[in-house]
Amino acid sequence: xxxxxxxxxxxxxxxxxxxLAAALILRRGAGDGGVAxxxxxxxxxxxxxxxxNTELTKRLQDQERALAQAVDQRLTAxxxxxxxxxxxxxxxxxxxxxxxxxxxxxxxxxxxxxxxLSSQVVGLRDILSNKQARGAxxxxxxxxxxxxxxxxxxxxxxxxxxxxRRADCLLKLPNPPGPIAVDAKFPLEAWRALAExxxxxxxxxxxxAFAVAIGKHIKDIQEKYIVPGETxxxxxxxxxxxxxxxxxxxxxxxxxxxxxxxxxFIVSPTTLWATLNTVxxxxxxxEMRQQAGRIQVEVQRLVDDIGRxxxxxxxxxxxxxxxxxxxxxxxxSSGKVKSRAERxxxxxxxxxxxxxxxxxxAARGALGSPKRT
Length: 373
What we know:
The chain is an alpha/beta fold. It folds into two domains: 7-25 and 35-129; 131-290, Trna Endonuclease, Chain: A, domain 1 (3-Layer(aba) Sandwich). The chain has helices at residues 5-28, 32-129, 131-149, 188-195, 200-225, 242-251, 253-261, 269-290, 292-346, 351-367; strands at residues 155-160, 166-171, 180-184, 235-238, 264-267. It has a five-stranded mixed β-sheet with strand order 1-2-3-4-5.
């Protein structure tokens, strides 16, 4: 253990004393007097050294105890801090593990959703790769849009026309314009080839194939679903893809003009939604016109009822006026009776006159009182 400055000083004094004793022995030789004196001094120095050693030992023990106590206190404090730190770290670790577990759960859910989405995408790709399934996909989208906007009586799916052909949807509009046929078309191969063209030459060929496919669809709809006397003079071609619709109107204005000339109007899901809302407004206007005659009859009946009500109100007002007049006359008669009764009470009559008046009143009562004017 390290020594203090006082301990080092005591050790140094002891060493100096030993050195002085050795020097005296060398100077004085082996004389008896010198030996005795030297022995005394050595004894005194030994006692001093022993006392110093005892004091040094005591101080060393005290310092050891103090040092041990300080070490114990520091160890206790350090243990407490370590315990608090470990507890805090455990809580933080627990919270972190909990958050990590929640994130793992969300990641698992997201992975599951990605797996489901991948399977759905694969299923959609399989559907779109088959022409028949792709046509059914367009028809289903068309039916969903029509059902959401129009009432059931305003449309018919797979409607049979007079020549035996069937339209994907027939919008039942009154004449004019008459029923409008809607046919769903999805030129996926031509559009995909156009979108995946690697160079300008491939794009030119793909654009040409795309124009040919759209032009064939326009011609087919014009020939099949515009039937004079049975349908309207126009029809709708439904493209169930906004991308195809945008490509058509952005880079193929000739096809759009061809559709206008053929009276086959091309619509996408968004534009079909707007068109169906317009059709609903037209149907509502037609219904209002059909009900206009009934509304006019009901309005005329309402006017007649109001006239009769006015007459009855006038009669009631006359009855109220007559009742008010009768009440005023009753009040006048009551006032006259009261005043006459007061005047009669003021007249002083003897017994004979009172008897005559009573007999006269009785006679009048028997004959009946004359009518008051």
